[in-house]
């Protein structure tokens, strides 16, 4: 810690991520558990990326976005878990203020991109089911590239503004963050300066870049479900629903846990519950997503079968 010039306060140079340090007897168990989750998550998502790139049958808009989503999950889990694993293994829970901001920057970018990608995938399913005659014209390769590039570039820009504002804050009270990653809300609460501007920017950007994609996703599925219910044939209904069921499950899990985390009061006993629910969308969701798409998706299972046959032919 360093003395702030002209002040009787101590400027903080590092934070302590408390994480699950209040359970010292379970640190090795947590390390082994999360290491296994990390390895499986990386392997499963990398497999999806390879399949989407290598298998021509998956060169469609839906799988283009799925490949982007899987690559995002690889980056997402690598932003949180390596630091978490090191903490379990060594007991060192300190992180520099700069390191904390870098971690939150990438976490925020990937969180925002995921919201946009899920909205893009729901719009793709909306066009495929509700406007099938116009699907090929509207959801062309160029438009898909624009949606994906826009998702990534806008997220980089937006989070850069927030991090710039956070970097101007002075941290001079407690340096303990009661979480397993650098949570923006708790970082702001540790500031001893005026946080009104960064709070306003966070509110505006959260509303436009998380809430708006959620509402677009919700609206797409309202139209999709209403269209499916109007189909007279039971077989056609099942076929139409099967094309979007995997994505609907992923959206429900992701937004369900995200909304729960930010609606739970972060105080007392609920703070512990908040941390465990946070594990769902930061650690388990990147693991669950590829499993849902591979187990429930006929095209992905067929691509896996073709890849396995090629491996057997060319050992």
Structure commentary:
75% of the residues lie in helices and 4% in strands. It is built from 11 helices and 5 strands; from the N terminus they run βββααβαααβαααααα. The chain has helices at 27-54, 61-90, 97-130, 135-138, 141-167, 184-189, 196-229, 234-242, 245-263, 268-296, 298-313; strands spanning 2-3, 10-11, 14-17, 94-96, 176-177. A hairpin with a 6-residue loop joins strand 1 and strand 2. Helix 9 runs antiparallel to helix 10.
The major beta sheet can be summarized as: 3 strands, mixed
Side by side, the strands of the main sheet go 4-3-5
Given the helix and strand composition, which structural class is it? mainly alpha
Query: What is the gyration radius calculated from CA atoms?
Result: 22 Å
Helical residues, percent:
over 70%
- The secondary-structure element order is EEEHHEHHHEHHHHHH
Low-confidence sequence ranges: 1-8
The coarse silhouette is globular
How many helices? The count is 11
Mean pLDDT: 85
How many DSSP E strands?
Answer: 5
Oligomer: single chain
**End-to-end gap:** 58 Å
Share in β-strands = under 5%
Give a short overview:
The protein contains eleven helices and five strands; from the N terminus they run E-E-E-H-H-E-H-H-H-E-H-H-H-H-H-H.
């Amino acid at each position: 810690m360093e003395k702030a010039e002209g002040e009787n306060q101590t400027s903080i140079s590092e934070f302590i991520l408390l994480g699950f340090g209040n359970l010292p007897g379970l640190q090795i168990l947590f390390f082994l558990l999360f290491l296994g989750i990390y390895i499986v998550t990386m392997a499963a998502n990398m497999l999806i990326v390879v399949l989407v790139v290598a298998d021509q049958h998956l060169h469609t808009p839906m799988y283009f976005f799925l490949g982007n989503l899987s690559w995002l999950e690889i980056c997402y889990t690598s932003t949180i878990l390596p630091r978490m694993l090191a903490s379990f293994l060594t007991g060192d829970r300190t992180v520099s203020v700069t390191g904390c901001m870098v971690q939150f920057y990438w976490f925020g970018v990937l969180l925002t991109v995921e919201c946009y990608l899920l909205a893009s995938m729901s719009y793709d399913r909306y066009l495929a089911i509700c406007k099938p005659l116009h699907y090929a014209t509207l959801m062309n390769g160029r438009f898909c590239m624009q949606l994906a590039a826009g998702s990534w570039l806008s997220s980089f820009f937006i989070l850069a503004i927030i991090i710039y504002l956070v970097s101007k804050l002075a941290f001079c009270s407690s340096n303990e963050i009661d979480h397993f990653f650098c949570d923006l809300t708790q970082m702001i609460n540790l500031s001893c300066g005026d946080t009104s501007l960064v709070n306003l920017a966070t509110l505006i950007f959260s509303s436009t870049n998380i809430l708006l994609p959620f509402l677009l996703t919700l609206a797409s599925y309202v139209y999709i479900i209403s269209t499916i219910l109007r189909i007279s044939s039971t077989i056609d209904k099942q076929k139409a629903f099967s094309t979007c069921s995997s994505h609907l499950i992923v959206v429900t899990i992701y937004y369900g846990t995200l909304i729960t985390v930010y609606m739970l009061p972060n105080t007392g006993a609920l703070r512990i519950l908040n941390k465990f629910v946070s594990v769902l969308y930061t650690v388990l969701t990147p693991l669950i997503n590829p499993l849902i798409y591979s187990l429930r998706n006929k095209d992905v299972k067929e691509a896996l079968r073709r890849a396995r046959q090629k491996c057997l032919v060319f050992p």
